Amino acid sequence: MDTTEQGPKEVPLSLTPAVLSLSNCPGTTPGTPLSKNQLKKQRKLAEFAELRKLRREREREKKKQKRRESKELGLPLRTGPSRKELKKRQVTDVGESVLSVAIDLDYDDLMHERDIAKCVKQCLRIYTINRRSPQPGKLHFTGIRRNGHIHESFKKNDGWENWHVQYHFDRGHADVFDRSQLVYLTCESDRVLDKLQPGCTYVIGGLVDHNHFKGLCHSRATEAGLTTARLPLSEHVDMKTRAVLSTYHVFELLTKVAAGQDWTAAILTTIPMRKGAKAKITEQKDEPCQDLEQKDEKPDAESKKPTETAIESEIESHSLDS
């Protein structure tokens, strides 16, 4: 009997178990590679993020160069108000005569990524319009879902936290303001906003839907028991297209009217030219010629025309309640 010790037998490499991974694990399928367009978009986004600081530095250098050239030629260094002047214009407390507007951003789940970017871009325009207005109003962004798509899109703008805007996260306009003082602006409303009422906060829907959710803002406002109103577009101008404006156009109209501009001039200088807006011309029909004896005769009480006070009272009855 052979009692010599034998060492461990060598196992062929072909029989050793392979290390399991996602690529060779049974029951899994390999991931599909990205398409050429997707890879191209990823590269562009990475390059855009890397070159952002470099572009900002180049823009600053261009501005400095323009200032030096203007100074050498004796031209004014500024064509608009300075930052200090713009800060002085900002409203510190809300008075009765100050315009108060809330942008309803509680439509996070109804917009695609591209439409959300457009919505936030309109909010940036609204902030710029209000900041450069001679009489800035109180601006609120309500209904922002924390860490939602709109919130993430806001984060892509440097310094957005320092804007002179009241941000309300996870709180809608009905949770921030008194419902009796809210007026939701929708083109489907039966009421006409012929005059801005002091003490009211006007709500504008921040929804970019390309008319896919027609009447949604109006239905939400009526279900919440809020007062609705529409801008007096058809009362002052004739347009070739539908009387539907973007969010920042509605806000710009309100700021101009609050600054003392009449509705017709504010509408014509705000809405795009493609809508073909023209001021309405009130036609006055000439009265037929009458004999002198008929002119001297006093009309009966039934044939009297309504007086100016009666017309004014009728117009006031259709005006928007505060």
From TrEMBL:
Sorted UniProt keywords: Methyltransferase, S-adenosyl-L-methionine, Transferase
Domain SAM-dependent MTase TRM10-type: 82-278
Compositionally skewed regions (Basic and acidic residues) per UniProt: 44-62, 82-91, 280-307
Stretch list, region Disordered: 1-91, 278-322
Residues that coordinate or bind S-adenosyl-L-methionine: L185, G205, C217, L231
One GO term describing the cellular component: nucleoplasm
One of the GO BP terms on file: positive regulation of 3'-UTR-mediated mRNA stabilization
Reaction(s) catalysed by this chain's protein: guanosine(9) in tRNA + S-adenosyl-L-methionine = N(1)-methylguanosine(9) in tRNA + S-adenosyl-L-homocysteine + H(+)
Matches recorded under PANTHER family: TRNA (GUANINE-9-) METHYLTRANSFERASE (PTHR13563), TRNA METHYLTRANSFERASE 10 HOMOLOG A (PTHR13563:SF13)
Name of this chain's protein: tRNA (guanine(9)-N(1))-methyltransferase
Organism: Drosophila yakuba
